[in-house]
Design brief:
InterPro entries: GAP1-M, GAP1-N2. There is one protein chain. This protein is of the alpha/beta class. It is 52% helix and 8% strand. A nine-stranded mixed β-sheet has the order 2-1-5-4-3-7-8-6-9, with helices on both faces. Strand 3 and strand 4 form a beta hairpin.
Length: 767
Amino acid sequence: MAVRQLHYTSCEDGLEGVRGFQVSAMTPGTPRQLVELAIRSGAYEPGPALVGRWGSADPGGFPVSFGFVPVGRAGVVFRSRYAGADFTGRMGNYFAHSLLFDDVERELEGLLPIDLWRSRGWADGRAAGVELPELASLVPGDDAGPENTLRFAAGRAAGLERVLGATQRALVAGRGRLVLVVPDDRTAALWVAATCRSLPHPLGLAVSFTTYTARPEESAALVNCTTPDVRLPAYGDFTAIDLTSEPPPDPHGTRYASAVAQLWERHETPAALRLAGEARPALAAADLEVFAVLLELAFDLPVRDPAGQELLLAAARMAVERVTGRLSAAAWGRLSDQVRDGGGPVDVAGWSEVLRAARDRREAVPAELFGAYFIAALSGGVPPGGATPGGGGAPVGERPWLPELSAADLEDVAENVVVPALAAPSPHPALTRLAGHRALVDALIRVLERRLVNPREIARLATTTPPEVARLLAGRGTDRIRLLADLVLARNGVLDPVRVMLDGTRAQHVDWRLFGPVLWPGDPSAEDAVRLVRQVRPRVLADSGLAARIVARALDRVSADESTPADGRLVDELLRSPLAALLERHDHTSLDAARKISDLRRSAPGRGGERVLLSALAAAGSLPEALGGRLVAAAASFVLRADPALHRDLLSRALDEHSRVFLPAYREAVRADLADAPPHRIAAVIVAWRGLERPHTHDLLVEETLPDALRKRRGRFLDQVGGALQAIANGIDVKPPKGGWGRWWQRWRTMHERRGLLSLFRRRGEV
């Protein structure tokens, strides 16, 4: 250590050879830069309340200006006192003693500048001669030492939080100054001591200060103390804090200031600063808010606002990378609790990096935090676009690291993440990681074994579990797991649902009342329905609701005119099977009608046609209106497909017994059928009508229904119809109309083709 000294006062025999303020003595070789800094910093001027006491016989009543100003690694610590009159008798003289450091941190040897307050090494007046020796050691004073600072700071939490918070903000911003209004210089020194001793040692050395100034607006120090009589700056980047009484709590205080203020109350600030001293690299002012979270965790401090996820991640990173091994298991536990209370890790890539490093460095991270991270990584992974909120993280598409968890922790993940994901309405990211994590699949199987004791849970999960997961479960676990996998794969088209339902190798009874609807989310196809009716016990079909769905499907297809041969076979199978005995009466009746409809649509009239026809028409009256109408319509189409003689006979019988319901349906069938029928078919129907013994019905059909059916036919087509009438009539021995078929047909055409403007245009187009 080699600390230079400088004395400055008003004299007539100083180093500068002038009469007045000058350097009166100095260590030879002192750099000019430090000399000028000492002169500027040590200037002393009494405040307004002291001007009237300039001539006081006791200058010791004036406040001492003690301060520190760094410049790079160098700096000046000064002590200025009012000295009364100078050698001319003029009042306002002062004596400044400055210590000049080339390397403040090295030469102070662990001390802070404020430690030299009221040190025995300070001179109160001029020394003999103009050369001062270098100091080989420094003797700290006691008045602002650690013990007195502790006694002072305890009980002043609100004020300290304000001062420290403002100091911290100024250090981070690199601009701004504080003005502390205090009752005297000793109180000022203690506030400075409390502030500097609240910061990590390198940052404490970065705080420039003065314990007294009458012109705070001109001071270059960061912390400037003054007395109530001094006018405060009206402009500039100053924060003024009145400490003559206890200030209210700072609503905008920093996290670090709040933590340290509490630690002073608990006499634990030294331990906190020892922890700060362990940081590598050393903490900068911008690191203090993150470090404050570590203090909250390490000392279990109450907080006004819980730390957010980003701040917790930054604190965890600092604990792992900069104060490695210094955070206790209890502190890690509190960190884990806060992360989980906040919903779990958000920046998965960031936590992946931190927790992997923590595991490698054997930090006391609790299993709960690893589990919370595992859940977050399993549930989301890298955010869309591959970037983490902080801009870093894993590359696009890279899956985040998953730590090894105990079997119990994996079961907790399976219970709280994977099983809910199985029931999610949309694909969940957690399920994409299952295939590559056999231990988690094993845990899921153990959890499902317990949950699937309730068959309703099997039914619930079977409707939402993706088939990819079902493939992982297939062939593993008990019958319950196998049943769940089979149900999922069958309802997604991977397995044959009928085979699944008929599987006789299951050790336990399956209640298909629950699972039948699960196997077929939609109605079974006609082919599957036939297999079910043939192979599954009727009671099982009925209890599962499948029987009702199969019947409803068959009836709907018939009612909508969409039935196929397979649908007809299904109706036949239903009515022939033992299941028919379990059906409701109206279902049985409706199925019988459906079979009749199917038979009528598929078959051509022949022997027994009359019986089939009349049976259908008789049944129609007892059916619901829509189904009865379909049956009558099928009967009408059936009649139209008969040869002319049988057509005449069937039509007569139907009209004799069921004219009211049959004739409207028959007329509608004629309109639809003859609209695109070939000429000979139309002629056959006309001839069949000629044989009716009901003149009124004959006229209705010929004069109203037939024109409707043929209204779009052209003249040449109608010529062909007329040409076929005679030959067909001869075949069934039907008497021709008066004048013969040709003249009758010509009259019909003359009457009906002249009706309407459209027929006129049609005839003109044929000319």
